[in-house]
Amino acid sequence: MKKIHSPFSIFHSLGVSSRGGQSLIEVMVAITMLTVSFLGISSLLAQSLALSRVTANSVTATYLASEGIEVAKNLIDHDFYGQASGETQGWGSCFGGGGNFELTYATYDCVALTQFIGQGDYLWYHNSTDHLYDYDQNGTTETGFTRKIVVTPAENGNRDEITVDAIVTWAGFSGVSNDIKLEDTFYKWY
């Protein structure tokens, strides 16, 4: 019977230990696998952080759009209550024939309405006092969000119906523009 020699038997005949070479190769493979694993984990971590920023911006924009609709609703209701004192001409009169507006929580009557012009102004965040968003730049942080409130009376001429759209826009990654639009319709309730 013929004896079969392993490839490592040559090293034994030369007096070289094959185990030493195997250990070196095993260490190199292990280091390569660890490096690839850490690169994969760091890539996932970077993507996770970017996605959390996108999510945070979307939540903030949704909040700002919702707030804009609520402010418009408050002005529509103000028209009804102001009619009794002669301050307004009745339900929905504050917005007249509609239009594009910049509204904040501090917009409490028709006198304070500001038209939305061009790209609009950025909202500023008051982090030191009341944690609210508005257009006042004193002691605040620029957010990069713009909010346009579009008020549209009913198309059929019905003065008992007003549609309010709140559109919040901000720049995302690589300067790509993102926006969120919320819409609500208000009906004369008295």
Question: How is this structure best described in words?
Answer:
This protein has 190 residues and is an alpha+beta fold. It has one domain. The protein is 39% helix and 25% strand. The chain contains two helices and seven strands. Strands 1, 2, 3, 4, 5, 6 and 7 form a seven-stranded antiparallel sheet that branches. The longest helix is centred in the N-terminal third of the chain and has 68 residues.
Topology diagram in text:
Blueprint: H1 9-14, H2 18-85, E1 99-102, E2 114-115, E3 122-125, E4 133-134, E5 141-153, E6 161-171, E7 177-187
Antiparallel strand pairs: 1-2, 1-5, 3-4, 3-5, 5-6, 6-7
Tally of separate domains: 1
Strand content: 15-25%
Mean pLDDT: 80
Give the ordered list of helices and strands: HHEEEEEEE
Taking all Cα atoms into account, the compactness measure Rg is 33 Å
Instruction: Please state the structural category.
Output: alpha+beta
Estimate percent helicity: 25-40%
Shape descriptor: elongated
Uncertain runs are none
How many angstroms separate the termini?
Answer: 109 Å
| Major sheet details | 7 strands, antiparallel
* Discrete helix count: 2
DSSP E strands, number: 7
What is shown here, in short?
The protein is α+β, with helices and mostly antiparallel strands and 190 residues long. The protein has one domain (36-187). The chain is built from two helices and seven strands; from the N terminus they run ααβββββββ.
List keywords for this structure.
190 residues, alpha+beta, seven-stranded antiparallel beta sheet
